[in-house]
Specification:
Blueprint: E1 5-6, E2 10-11, E3 15-21, H1 24-27, H2 44-53, E4 63-67, E5 74-80, H3 83-97, H4 102-109
Antiparallel strand pairs: 1-3, 2-3, 3-5, 4-5
């Protein structure tokens, strides 16, 4: 049994892309006429879990966006440019939003 193969990333002005070549055994697990990401659009983690369940391993944010009918064993993925940086910035903003400014600390805890 072979291994799943991952392309290098390639880019346009909006997205970064990659394709994943499945082994024949894994390709048999793919649904014939739908994208894996269409199943649970309301929950990105569940979307990713569907393609992860067949053995595809990638970082977060990738979306299975197209089926290449002549070669359905090749999955086409994309995600917005700078996705990881955007996620890190959002996480940092959430942390900062939960920090109590020192000027308000005395109001909450009494004299410092």
């Amino acid at each position: 049994m072979g291994q799943i193969q991952y392309s290098e990333k390639y880019f346009d002005d909006i997205y970064e892309y990659r394709h994943v070549v499945l082994t024949p055994e894994v390709a048999k697990l793919l649904p014939k006429n739908r994208l894996l990401s269409e199943v649970m659009e309301f929950d990105v983690d569940d979307e990713q879990n569907e393609w992860r369940a067949i053995g595809v391993q990638q970082s977060r944010g990738w979306v299975h966006y197209a089926i290449h009918r002549p070669e359905p064993h090749i999955m086409l993925f994309r995600r917005p440019l700078n996705y990881q940086q955007q996620q890190e910035n959002q996480a940092q903003q959430q942390i900062l939003a939960n920090v109590v400014p020192f000027s308000n600390l005395e109001k909450l805890c009494g004299p410092v």
